Amino acid sequence: MSASLIVCADGGANRLEEANQRLGKSDITPDFICGDLDSLRPEVRASYEKQGVPILHDPDQYSTDLTKSLKCIRHWAEKSKVDVLDVIALGGIGGRFDQGFSQLQSLYSASRDESLLQGHMFLVNPQSICFLLPQGKNRIHTPLGPGFFGENVGIIPISRPSTISTNGLEWDVTDWYTEFGGQISTSNHIKNDFLEVDTTEQVLLTIELDTTSR
Residue 130, Cβ neighbours under 10 Å: how many? Predict the structure, then answer.
């Protein structure tokens, strides 16, 4: 794993420890573990403490462990004099439905709060990746095939209704009004190496990952 910083959000440290054991590795070690620590198993905590990993307890129950981790990352970036730092959240939109919504809430909150994020943020699970497209014209590189993307894509107006135009999909739209309770674009198909989306409001883009090489 190549990253400037590896942070585990609470029980994410359990998942990393399990992955290391399953793969017979011990070289992937987090730089920090952040959260209210209600999910961190005692034996995992003891193992990482023995390795000198800082474990940062934040008991605030009005923010998610993902948001707490974003604060931790931003603090590290400021101390390290790193202005822009993109964040990839592994395990995003996985598990319980309510937790998935809380991760989307953190994604949207971070996009509007520079104390949490200065860069882009991506939520990734084994099947897909999702991220926000800002208002205006967006062009996304979308190569298909092993190691890249599958064909399925969605453009979701989570925060408010939007009018979108697209180029590069099987079913392109022009000046198409989209909102929850009305029309939303899901299960569309990528047909070009580049997808263009023009949107009047911030929208969520989800793209299937190609898993045939796994």
Answer: 21
Closest C-alpha among 205, 208, 96 to residue 140 = 205
Element (H, E) at 149: strand 149-156
Between strands 7-9 and 32-35, the pairing is: parallel
* Interatomic CA distance for residues 64 and 102, integer angstroms: 7
Model confidence pTM above 0.85: yes
- DSSP class of residue 4 equals S
Place of tokens 């205006």: 136
CA-nearest of 160, 163, 103 to 128 is: 103
**Cβ-based neighbour number of residue 132 at 10 Å:** 21
- pLDDT at residue 33 greater than cutoff 80: yes
What's the N-to-C CA distance of the chain in angstroms? 17
Q: What's the token pair of residue 78?
A: 């400021």
pLDDT in tens, 132-173: 999 999 999 999 999 999 999 999 999 999 999 999 999 999
- Tokens 């004099």 -> residue: 81
